[in-house]
Design brief:
single chain; three-stranded antiparallel beta sheet
Length: 84
Amino acid sequence: MRISVEKRTRGHAAWQRTVDAGQRVTVLLDGVVQMHCLMADDKTGEIKRQVADARGQLIEDPETGDVSTELVTGKVTIIVSGAR
């Protein structure tokens, strides 16, 4: 399964259906809950997440002014829970 909060990307429709059904998505990477996750794919073992510093503050890319992101790999687990 692939989910993505980013519009016009593969996995966005699956994420939108989940949200519309009142469900919650939790993403784990190597068994650790991931925060600020933008995309997760349990088949390729990839997540795209926003980068935070040690205090949990999101880091801004000085060139673009956007929040920095990183692509991380490992064992990805996607848990969908809640109302339907």
